[in-house]
Amino acid sequence: MMLIRAFVPAHITAFFVPVIEEDPLKSGSLGAGINLDKGTNVFLSVEEGHEGNIHVTFNGEPVKREEAVITYWVAERLLPQDFIGEIEIWQYFDFPNGHGFANSAGGALGTALTLAYRFGRTLLQAARTAHEAEVRHGGGLGDVVAQLHGGIEMRVKAGGPGVAVVDNILVEGYRVLAIPLGRMGTKEVLEGDVIEAIRRAGEEALEKLLREPTAENMMRLAREFAEGTGLLEGELLEVAREIDRVLSLPSSMVMLGKSLFALVRENEVKNVKALMMDLNLPYELCGIYWGRPVVGRWIGGE
């Protein structure tokens, strides 16, 4: 049995402008964000020859089709029509689901890449399938194209893979503090009244970032966006202000989750860790992931 593994970086959206079109490949988002060196690992095993089903697990727990709609949608589109056999897809997430770290897109893209590797499809075919699944089922709009690109990215033209235009801010010397505090439904926000405020603030932030494309400016704009739209408020805002006291750059809110993030210099790490202990908060200190998702054989052979 051949096991295939893909790694897709977790992705934090700093600010965004949703773009919804009838064609999912023209839908997406403008904005900016950061890819992390923690994320989603997807493993695929294929047993041919007898009538079987698709089985999906999240962090080792079997999930029903309705809990993994996006993964099933991707798998059914990338499997050859004449395929007969058993498919097992294991997804392992470094961050909790629904907290804004693009687990949904990570699972979709990881699944698509492993199946593409196994059944002779291309990277672009896999990525487009994952993006379409995300858009159709309310997962996310810009995560797949961001994860495909890596680094600190700016999405300057919306759309799916092959349509979107993505650029990178080049920087070093920072780690990323990620604090997952709670769930927020992307769909609820995108269908709510706040969407017009998000659109206006996101367009303004991107315009300013393109004039001065630095990581420092991105963090300042992310915070302005998060507070200006009213998404960052209450307890989450209080925690953000606590974090700001030990950092040179403002922290901000992960779009869309009840989570916070910040860029941390090496000389700030010690104080950040001490603060996290004091506040008793769950956190990860990650590197920035520069590069594409990876896929290949894990163990065994044909």
UniProtKB/TrEMBL annotation:
Enzyme class: transferase
Known EC number: 2.7.1.169
Keyword RNA-binding: no
Keyword Nucleotide-binding part of the UniProt annotation: yes
Domain GHMP kinase N-terminal: 76-151
Source domain of life: Archaea
Keywords: ATP-binding, Coenzyme A biosynthesis, Kinase, Nucleotide-binding, Transferase
Pfam families, alphabetized: GHMP_kinases_N (PF00288)
InterPro entries linked: GHMP_kinase_N_dom, GHMP_kinase_PoK-type, PoK, Ribosomal_Su5_D2-typ_SF
Annotated pathway: Cofactor biosynthesis; coenzyme A biosynthesis
GO terms classed as biological process: coenzyme A biosynthetic process
Reaction catalysed by this enzyme: (R)-pantoate + ATP = (R)-4-phosphopantoate + ADP + H(+)
MF term (GO), any: kinase activity
Annotated function: Phosphorylates (R)-pantoate to form (R)-4-phosphopantoate in the CoA biosynthesis pathway.
Protein family according to the UniProt entry: Belongs to the GHMP kinase family. PoK subfamily.
PANTHER family registered for this protein in UniProt: PANTOATE KINASE, PANTOATE KINASE-RELATED
Protein name (database record): Pantoate kinase
Organism: Pyrococcus yayanosii (strain CH1 / JCM 16557)
Source taxonomy: Archaea, Methanobacteriati, Methanobacteriota, Thermococci, Thermococcales
